[in-house]
Amino acid sequence: MAIATSIFWLSLLFVSTKGCHFPAIYNFGDSNSDTGSVSAALGPLPPPFGETFFGQPSGRYSNGRLIIDFFAEKLGVPVLHAYLDSIDPNFRYGANFAASGSTILLADGKSIQAGFSFLSLVIQVSEFEQFKNRTIELYNQVHNAAFPGLSAKTLKIKSRIPRPEDFSRALYTLDSGQNDIHYALISTPKEQLKAHITNATNQFALSTKKLYDDGARAFWIHNTGPLGCLPYFVTNYPPKAGDADQHGCVKSYNEVAQEFNKRLKEKVSQLKTLLHDAVFILTDMYSAKYSLISEAKQHGFIGPMAYCCGHLGDNPVECGKTAIVNGTQVYGASCSDPAKYISWDGIHYTDAANHWIANRIIHGSLSDPPIPLIQACDNHIVTQQ
């Protein structure tokens, strides 16, 4: 029976299929998938952000594209506009509610003071509900307008907002949790970490269920990556003796990330049991990222603790910003060849690393169930386990 099941799943990875047609993508998360929310709300990112692919800052915390951009390309839709970006947005093919610095749990005064965003997953889902209600109302107003004689303005509006029926046919992608772990590590006693993680994953399930109640049916969910392998953490919260792995990552931080991923998997399993008509695909982002980190040089990257832009350590200078160091103004410049680096600025990944990771996960081999991205709408396949 086990052999037959394995053959079935392997066949899904290699047999050519028609795949799904997702008319739109709705994304929720943090800086790993923010395409401009925080930049629109709190001020634009400076150069050299965006320099490699866009030629200028694009609201993304990278030198180029994020994993969500490669998803859009794979599914044949334009890159997602940030929901908060009011400058000539086009939401016909979806919207991005992700916000850099966001947590799953509703932000409080302490987390905001620590530098995390108030645009938590709870708020993002609330934004989506408002977006859906208002665009359906607007679509119906435009659709019912007298014809012929529609104004150019009305035609433009109609072409740039989603059709009501597309909400239930869209792909909903979620990548949250990294900042909940980050905040817990710097603010929560060790004995309370598991309780914090439980609260975060419980809220994740509630927010996901709310999206389902609003019509979402196809969910592509990422677990969190190896936080202890980020150069920022290794430099600012260095490992104690015996707490570093063979690649220089902080083992105890990665163990917290793995605990989060364990709890997240349990919650997604519960959602699958509860909501039979929806598709829930949980992708092991941790394994994808750790694989790249552990095999960095084999794939043409400099060692995993190197980063391209800015300065960490005793005299930190953020990427693209200036600071006075020992009486001298220092600029957080980028390296000469970002494509050789996994980390862009010590926290976020480069365009090249995001591209590598997207290629690693897009075919579904690291997903549960192992369904390729282009088949993430197929509940019939997903339920044949």
From TrEMBL:
Keywords: Glycoprotein, Hydrolase, Signal. CDD domains: SGNH_plant_lipase_like. Residues 1-19 form the signal peptide. GO terms for molecular function: hydrolase activity, acting on ester bonds. The keyword Glycoprotein applies. It comes from the Eukaryota. It holds the Pfam family Lipase_GDSL. Belongs to the 'GDSL' lipolytic enzyme family. This is Lipase_GDSL domain-containing protein. The lineage of its organism: Eukaryota, Viridiplantae, Streptophyta, Embryophyta, Tracheophyta.
